[in-house]
Every structure is written in structure tokens, then in C-alpha cells.
Amino acid sequence: MYLTQLITQFFHDMRARKLRTLLAVFGIAWGTVAVVLLLALGGGFHAASKKSMHGMGDSIVVIWPNRTTKAFEGMQPGRSIRMKSSDVIEMAEALPEIGLCSPEMTNWGRMLKYGDRRMDASVAGVVPEYEAMRNIIPERGGRFFNPMDIRERRRVIFIGNGIKDKLFGKDKAVGKTILVDGRPFVVIGTLQKKLQNSSYSSSDDRRAFIPYTTFISAWGNWNVSNIVVRPNPPQASESMKKAVYRYLGRKYRFDPSDEGALNMWDTVEQDRFLDWFFWGLQALLGLGGALTLGAGGIGVANIMFLIVRERTREIGVRMAVGARDWHIMVQMMLEVALIVGIGGLAGFGFSALIVWLVQVLPVPDWLGRPDISPVVSLSTISVLSLVAFAAGIFPARRASRLDPVKALEF
After folding, report:
1. What pTM did the predictor assign?
2. Model pLDDT, residue 399
3. Closest by CA position to 105, among listed 21, 263, 226, 203
């Protein structure tokens, strides 16, 4: 009953101060919109950036053989490291720190032809594990290589979606035969379109892949262009890199501490940096929204100070008939909570509408799809609660500390 009376009193007072109440509610609603949208847009951009970066692969390390930079066992620096595909396969079997591994031998500028259509593209020889590491997802009806393709050196080829569009248009490519530098290959799969903002040769949509054994048979080249490795476990890239340096240092006789002998691109480390960067960006965006919401809280606090001043006599009467200090504080804090609550609900509703519009409208893939996640909702509610407390505690304390005698004389 007491709570009902307080709420009734609140709406009675707010009707008497419509403009002030409307401005306070609008300030809170606008601040809520700022917090929710900035966090939601930042989260969507973060997710899209990670997805695009993972278009190249999840938790992989790309290794290129280079030149030694340190003298070792009487040999001068500057020696070229040339690795063969068989050595890479042996290394994958010998090191428990390696989860998945594939040699990659690449020929750039190969002529691909189907009928009267032709284009230049890079052709890489790899193993079946390459599919999982590099997020090579076939379109329905196609496939990547299997161990039998490797053993039998089959003339099969997996092509990127850009090559498929160029050579076949809207026609089906799987099962058709294309010529690669005049050599016939059967298309066994085409790449499903994916986001990819990073690569180490060219985008996968314009690349073709064949079994590494077939690559060796066709071009007689055993030397790898690079190695793609996934650590075991996936996040343990540092220990895996040290193990690779030790193993290859023994194999090719270079100092295991000679980091120049091998160039490594550690996407696990890059992923960590990206996460920290976007968490910092999220915090910055959240702070900007919180400051906007704080400005709305100042407006609420000003209104409450005015209410305390205008209701001084009423507060004095209540104290005179037995109201305790905490009764007055509860009343003031409840009124603040109602103003902030109404504004917060209005802000959440408007934000949800904006997020829904962005999700259904055609926006660039790199922008991502914002989402009011539980983290965003909890963060916004926390800021709203803090603003409500800060905006209400000082006017409520002033009201509860009024001298009843002086209040009755006001």
C-alpha cells in the first residue's frame, strides 16, 4: 500500500511538472540509445572483423623458408633454406606440438581454360588437412581432396568462387574438365563465398588447389613455397614455433635461435591483439555513451533538487507526523528510479528498432550486424543503475536531513 501511494504521488508530481519530466526522461533515453548503439555497433564490427580475418584460417601459423642470419657450425650466414614437401610431412608426424600441417607449393600465373574462357590464377599443391586449417569450405555438391587423391596423384582440382564465376558463370562446375597450362584437371569442388580481409598470396576466391603429389608430378617441383601449421592445442603457438625452429634447425643445420631463417605469420598472436584492440574500442565507445547518459543524470538530479525545494513544507509535515529519514530517502530514490526507468525503457526500445533496421538493410559485410547481446544489455543496465543512484542520492539526503521546524516555516 505504501509503495502504491508513493508511485501515485510520483505521477501526480510529474503531471504538475510535465516539461521538466519530459526533458529528464528524454535525456536518459538519449543516453541509453548512445550506450546501446555504440556497444552494439562496436560488437558487430568486432565480430565481422574476426570473421573476415578468419577467412584465411583459424589459429594457424604460416611459415616461409628464408635465409640464415647467423653463422652456425662453421657455415656463414646468408644460406637459403629450401624445404621439400616430404620433410614437412615428416615434421608434422615427429612434433606433437603440431596439430595439423600442410606443405604448400605454389605456381603463380597459371593459365586456366574452359572452352573459350580463360584466366590467370595461382595453383597450389596441398594436403587434405589444408581444408580445415584455411577454412576452405566447398559449395554443396563438391568436395576437397581426400587421402586417395593424394596417393593416386589424381588430376583433380578445387577452384575458388571467383575462378568458377569467370570460367563457368552460372553453370555448374563440379565434374567439368578444365585445362591448367594445357593439362586436364577435373573440378571436384568450388569454394563457398567467404569474408577474407587478409591473405599471404592472393584471395582464395582467385586460387586453385590440387593434391601436392599431383603438383610434383605435373611440374616436377618438390620445394615448398610455405608451410601452414595449426598448433596443438590451437592457442599454443609459441611452444610450437620453438619446436619447429629446433626441428628444422637440426634438419637444415641452422641455429635454432636464428629467427631470420624462417619467416612466420602467427595468426594466433594476431587474434589476441585484435581482441584486445576491440575490447579497448568497446570500452571507449561505452565510455562515450556513459558520459552522454551521465549528462542526462545531471538533468534528473537538478529536477530532484527543485522537487525537494518545492516540497519542503510537505516533507516537514511528514516528518512532524512521524516519518523517518529513510522514508523520505526511499520516496526520493523511487522517483528518480522511475524517471530513469521510463527513460531507459524508451531508449532500449528505440535502440532495438535501429538495430533491427540495420540488420535487415543491405549494409557492407565489413560493418557486421549489430546485436543487443546480454553483455550490451547488462552493461547498459549497470550504467543506468549507477546514474540513477548518483542522480538521486544527493537530493534524497538533502530532503531526509531537513529540519522539520524550519521546513514547516518554509
Report:
1. 0.70
2. 60
3. 226
